[in-house]
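Teaching soon. Got one?

===
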Amino acid sequence: MKHDVLSKRIYLLLLLLIASILIGNYATRNNTTLSAPMETSFEFCLTYNINGDNQISTFNDTYRMTSNDGTHTIPLAFTGDEMDKLLAFVEDNALMDTDFTDMPILVHFTPSESCTLHLKMPDGETKTIKWQTGQVEVIHNPSGTTTVNGQAKVLFEFETLIKEMIANRKDVQQLPPEKGYD
């Protein structure tokens, strides 16, 4: 009788061990699949300021800016809705299809800000666009409105949209003011 009870206990322990191994293997396999990093289909990196000192990048989820105290880099991620809005802007304004080379200088700024925008679209297509603030004419009207002219207008608007999205974030507001140039 003792032998039968002992055999049943060993049999149950073996079943539990096998079940644990199977469940553990299944959980590990599925956990690996679920925790694998998901690639974001749309990415961008905007570099701007006089020397290209400042940068907002979704490639590494950071915001880098230069103040009079030095360079500051903080983590910065956009929400899915923000990325959708930015992607819609890129698509609606055909940034990938527009030739932005040979844009005329409309306004002479000293010093002139240089901007570079790297885009990676959902289909993997990439594009780099460079422009200067002098290629955008910004007119502040007496009525309080602003008129923006020039081929680079859409680039200026995209840059403004990105900056407006991050401007009210607490971690961005805690940074010192951006470095000014005289």
